[in-house]
Amino acid sequence: MKRSLLIFIFIFILLPLLSSSEYRSGEVIIQLQKDVKTPENIIKQYQELDVKIIRNLSHRLNIWLASYDNKRIKDNQILSRLKQHPDIKLVQFNHYLELRNTYPDDPMFDQQWNLDNTGQTGGTADADVDAPEAWDLPHSNITALGDTIVVAVVDNGFDLEHEDLNFWKNWHEIPNNGIDDDENGYIDDYDGWNSYQHNGTITCASHGTHVSGIAAAVNNNGIGVAGVNWNVKLLPVQGSSTEEATVVESYGYVYEMKATYNETNGEFGAFVVSTNSSFGVNFGDPQDFPIWACLYDSLGAIGIISAAATMNMNVDVDLEGDMPTACESNYLIAVTNTTHNDTKNNNAAYGAECIDLGAPGTTVLSTDVGDDYDIKTGTSMASPHVAGAVALLYAAAPLNLMELAIQYPDTVALMMKDYILSGTDSLSCLQNITVTGGRLNLYNSLELVMDYNEENENEVGGEITLDTIWEADTLYVIDDITINNGVNLTIMPGVRVQFEDDYKLQIQGSISAIGTATDSIRFTINDTLLNNWQGIRFEQTPVENDSSFFKYCLIENGFADGDSLDGCGGGLMVYNFNKIKLENCKFSDNNAYEYGGGIYLQNSNIIIKNCTISNNLAVSGSNRCGGGLAVILSNPYFVGNQVHNNYGDYAGGGLFLQNSSLNLIENKISNNFAGDLGGGIYANGGYPYLLKNFISSNFAYNGDELNQGGGIFLANTSSIVINNLINNNTSGQGGGFYLDCVEIYFLNNTVGVNSTIGDANAGGGFYCQTDSSEYNFSIYNSIIADNSSDNGSQFYFEDEYSYPDFYYCNLRNGIEAFGYADSSMSYDGIFENNIDCNPYWQGSGFEHPYALMQNSLCINSGDPDTTGIYLPELDLAGNPRIYNGNTVIIDIGAYEYQGEPVAVPEDLISSNSAPVLYRNYPNPFNPTTTISFALPESQKIKLVIYNIKGQLVKILADEYLPSGFIQKEWDGTDLKGKQVNSGIYFYTLYSSKKQITKKMMLLK
Question: From CA 711, how far away is CA 34, in angstroms rounded?
Answer without folding.
Answer: 51
